[in-house]
Write a structure and sequence with these properties.
3-stranded antiparallel beta sheet; 14 strands; 536 residues; alpha/beta; Aspartate Aminotransferase, domain 1; 7-stranded mixed beta sheet; homodimer; Aspartate Aminotransferase, domain 2; 47% helix
């Protein structure tokens, strides 16, 4: 039963429902045990009202649901994304009152929504996993449908180890797939990996969710998170009611990671009583595209060792690198451990990867993994239990992880096509990134670093003071205002920099460079010019 | 920096690491700002020790990670399940020292891990979604691979609406699939449904996780949960640090749901200061199999209306019904609303369904949905944001939801095979359930109600006092002890009743009736007799 306070709250919310008290409720009201006869008449009255109210008003409202969910911000799929979907639906219905004929979702790294084609080898294998009866007619597949013998072999290998993709797997993933991941890590890093330390997850997001759930013990638990960042981290920390400890990346140094800056953020948080437990590194960066040098990774690991911080290395863009070279945190840590026996043994590293990005681009399949170095067995047991509650990650997504880490090799029947598709996606992304970058260079008040990697550019914008005033009048930040006008004028949906965090006084937006063609780039240029002229 | 207390803690944990202080750390130590010269010598000493310790000891341990994860219990994939996987691996390696030749995972409702074959129509469609290039050779599919024209049509319909199954969908699911679900709800319940109130999820588990995250605001938020229950609910509430308010199902009345019992539990919780906000109903029940009558559903909804409780109807077993008839909460609520204008408008109902159970049995694909009635728009916005953070549910799983709710109909080319497969799975489950039930009837000290539905039997066991003593000596409950011995002797893995909750003083275990053949049933009977003889 609601308290008197609740009743008052209800009264304020919706007085009209009190006009009538239906007779049907009276019986029930009388059957309640009342504390004292003195209170009876008032209490009956209240109970009556309240019961009627109760039946006519939902229990949940913004003021009484989980406040930590309410506090969470997630701009990538926020107001702009919702509006862009409304425009898309309008266009689909044939409504022609919009100043554009297509919505370009440059707000989200979703390659196959735009132009990226899936890798043939991967999808051929998956088609057999979904319908193993296809293997009853191998010759038809080989002769008429373009399947190669290695496709059939891989499908048989996976089916033998999985049974059915319709069955739950072990909670942390199919053992044979974890073995493939371990072999990949060994080839990539030069150090053997233990399949038992690998956890297959529904994309990297689910892995991040698991790890943060384990690491954060209470509201004072703090996690160092790069800013700008992919908002998964801040949103998940909000929901968990833990503390985000932001550290800024250095835009002037190509969005580099500076350990000095990290230390400042760390020390400030400690002074405020935050129990900083972990540091997140996104490498290559999202939204910045920056790859860390080996020396930078070393200094982050050194710092983590000194301060006893868990390291979470989000490495989902490890193959999306145009400038520099990807070094895995795992490889660097294991090298440091080898060169300094005993010194770095206590470092806990969780590295995350995904099938969603890179040349795979299979976001919709929700596949990924994280691997652990240095975690105590008793903590891993809790991780295992936590992932068990959600049963297992999608098994077809797990199979894609296997295909990603173990693609066709030179000499395999599917290799030539695989290599051609892979390289063509890579070159296509680079070309689009460059075209967009060139356009930004020409735009007044826009500054953008050379494309380094990932799937995004994150230009700085300088807007006239009048635009900032107009934004304020709408209750928006200037970057939100700019992005909203861009969407309305061009159908291009990007994300304001405030969705990722940005230094006070700076404005940015994040755009993917996945969309094909140059028309949408031209439309951004045209819009920008008009926007600047209007508010000059 | 760790406090002195932390240093002491470290000292207790692992004193050996203090033997040497490596010179490499001294420089860093000196660079620290020290508060006063007086403190310097002690502090430097401490910092040195600590820094070295820090580098050699993981940060996380059972005592400092998220206590709510540590508290959570999840028996379905607990110690017994882990041990059964070890046995399975042993058998795979050809080790022959076990007294059985096969592990039967009767601990988890995982139809396709055992014998249930996927429905052909579903998997043929999915194979095309994974490899749309198959549509370049339609005639080959039709003439040589057993595909029918409606398979091709459905695949084209889904591809048209989805684009690629490798792309993220809208956060709450593909709009066209939500429309199919809405039509299904209308056909099933006789009331139209709004696609915008439907959220596609990664199995029902993920839907439950979302809803509990929204509903529970703080530790005093309480949710009424049936006992025995599927431990997803208790485990999720532990992780969320909210309060589970158990209500017992009545074993003597075929595991019926009694509103009187619910009221008692509710009132007791209120008296203890719990802010009870919702009631979970699992219908048909897991692990009990019981289906609620229409009258029982009405009385639960009446109670929810009176006490202003959100209703969560977990209806994943809606087609696994052998005795009685499935009535959806949605149909009953909308009927009550129609017959009593205005009276039940405030009831919030979330109904959950899944592709994992029923004759579909596609657990590994992680597909499901929940639909909402009566939730405020401002609350739904928060639900939308919450599901956005994890981006979207697996798109292939979403497609399976579409196929489940919109299967081939009479006259469609695939209908006859579909109907035959569907009925054969249903009859097979019923036959196996009956065989297991008959075996339990013959076992001394075992009582089991007639199979009613779902995928489980949940017999009561009475074990001799000596067995209870032996269990205590091992630190186990008697039912855990019984199940562990059963696994060791027969390779059959079941879940102790304590994993689902059971009335004080009673013992049960849950077994699926999915495994084929009768040999495993005989081995349970044989084990049971020996167990009873040994401890008599």
């Amino acid at each position: 039963m609601a308290s008197h306070l609740d009743v008052r709250h209800v009264l304020t919310d919706c007085p009209s429902v009190f006009v009538q008290t239906p007779p049907s409720l009276v019986t029930r009201t009388h059957s309640r045990p009342l504390v004292t006869p003195l209170l009876r008449s008032r209490q009956v009255h209240l109970v009556k009202r309240q019961t009627h109210t109760v039946a006519n008003m939902p229990r949940l409202n913004l003021g009484n649901i989980n406040p930590h969910v309410v506090e969470a911000k997630y701009a990538v799929r926020g107001e702009l994304a919702v509006k862009s979907e409304e425009y898309r639906a309008k266009l689909r219905r044939g409504e022609t009152d919009l100043p554009f004929s297509e919505v370009i979702s440059a707000n989200i790294g979703n390659p196959q929504q735009l132009d990226q084609k899936p890798i043939t080898f991967f999808r051929q294998v998956l088609s057999i996993l979904e319908n193993p009866r296809l293997l009853d007619n191998e010759q038809v597949l080989l002769d008429h449908l373009g399947y190669k013998s290695d496709v059939l072999e891989r499908a048989k290998f996976l089916l033998k180890n999985i049974g059915s993709v319709g069955a739950y797997s072990a909670s942390a993933g199919v053992p044979a797939i974890k073995e493939s991941v371990a072999k990949f890590l060994e080839r990539r890093d030069g150090f053997p990996a233990d399949p038992a330390r690998i956890y297959l997850s529904a994309g990297a997001s689910s892995g991040v969710n698991t790890l943060l759930h384990i690491i954060c013990a209470n509201p004072s638990s703090g996690i160092l998170v790069p800013i700008p960042q992919y908002p998964l981290y801040t949103a998940s920390l909000s929901v968990l009611n833990a503390t985000c400890v932001p550290y800024y990346l250095d835009e002037a140094a190509s969005w580099g990671t500076s350990v000095e800056t990290i230390k400042e953020a760390y020390n400030a948080a400690k002074r405020n009583g935050t129990d900083v437990r972990a540091i997140v590194i996104i490498n290559p960066g999202n939204p910045t595209g920056a790859s860390l040098s080996e020396a930078d990774i070393k200094s982050v690991l050194q710092f983590a060792a000194e301060e006893n911080l868990v390291v979470m290395a989000d490495e989902v863009y490890q193959t999306n690198v145009f400038i520099g070279k990807f070094h895995s945190f795992r490889q660097v840590l294991l090298t440091m451990q080898k060169e300094n026996p005993g010194k770095y043994d206590g470092v806990e590293l969780a590295s995350l990867h995904s099938v969603s990005k890179g040349m795979v681009g299979e976001c919709g399949h929700r596949g990924g993994y994280f691997d652990l170095v240095g975690f105590k067995a008793e903590v891993e047991e809790q991780i295992y239990k936590f992932v068990s509650i959600m049963l297992c990650s999608p098994v077809i997504g797990q199979c894609l992880v296997e295909l990603m880490v173990n693609p066709p090799r030179p000499g395999d029947p599917s290799y030539l096509l695989y290599e051609q598709e892979y390289n063509s996606i890579f070159e296509g992304l680079k070309k689009r990134a460059t075209a967009l970058y060139e356009a930004f260079k020409e735009m007044e008040g826009v500054e953008c670093g050379e494309p380094q990697g990932s799937m995004y550019l994150f230009p700085t914008i300088h807007v006239p003071a009048k635009a900032a005033d107009a934004a304020r009048a709408e209750g928006r930040t200037p970057d939100e205002f700019y992005c909203m006008r861009l969407l309305e004028a061009t159908g291009v949906c990007v994300v304001p920099g405030s969705g990722f965090g940005q230094k006070e006084g700076t404005l940015h937006f994040r755009t993917t460079f996945l969309a094909p063609g140059t028309e949408w780039v031209s439309s951004i240029k045209k819009f920008h010019q008009e926007f600047m002229n209007k508010y000059r």
